[in-house]
Amino acid sequence: MKKRKYEAEQTKQTIVEGAKALFAAKGYAATSMMDICEATGCSKGSIYHHFQSKEDLFLYLAEQAFTNSWQTWHEQSGGDHSATEQLYAYADYFVDTLQKPLNKAGEEFMIRVGADSEAGRRFMEIIQNYMKGFEDLVQAGLDSGEWKGESVQELSFIILSYYSGLSDSYHLMDKAAMKELFRKATTLLLDGIRK
């Protein structure tokens, strides 16, 4: 029984890794279940045994990516650092994880399924859970009196949008230059929200 369970987990992992590579390379819409079968060597039946649909498979990947990303950040940022120090560290982490393979596919996924669909709502819930973690960092900055702001959600959204906009330049410079750009941008941002 244990061997069968292990083999099932291995098959699922093969499907997940193959699908992730395809979604990253081709996008969500251009990746078919047949493509995933060919890339993984798994039958459609095997894929549907683990995932109800292509949407379900993509949502699984998104949840893994966002949960793992936040857990990794949380482990790296631990300690008694001020919110300002943590924001600088988060900016470095953001640069370190810039080439997130599912970002563009996630945007396409939402356009394809629509925000009002069950899949769209599930995807937004994954994003909101990630945002909640970042909001805790921003709330710490507000609570400690380091930063000013009226709404933790609004300020969190502004900061993450700011970093996302900067990340569009990552093809134009190396990682060290990007980190320096993000550090300067963080200083500029903090000049606006520091008390």
From TrEMBL:
GO molecular function list: DNA-binding transcription factor activity; transcription cis-regulatory region binding
GO biological process: negative regulation of DNA-templated transcription
Keywords, in A-Z order: DNA-binding, Transcription, Transcription regulation
DNA-binding region: 32-51
Source domain of life: Bacteria
SUPFAM superfamilies: Homeodomain-like (SSF46689), Tetracyclin repressor-like, C-terminal domain (SSF48498)
Domain HTH tetR-type: 9-69
Gene3D superfamilies per UniProt: Homeodomain-like, Tetracycline Repressor, domain 2
UniProt xrefs under Pfam families: TetR_C_5, TetR_N
PANTHER family membership: HTH-TYPE TRANSCRIPTIONAL REGULATOR RUTR, TRANSCRIPTIONAL REGULATOR, TETR FAMILY
Name under which the protein is recorded: Transcriptional regulator
Source organism per UniProt: Paenibacillus rhizosphaerae
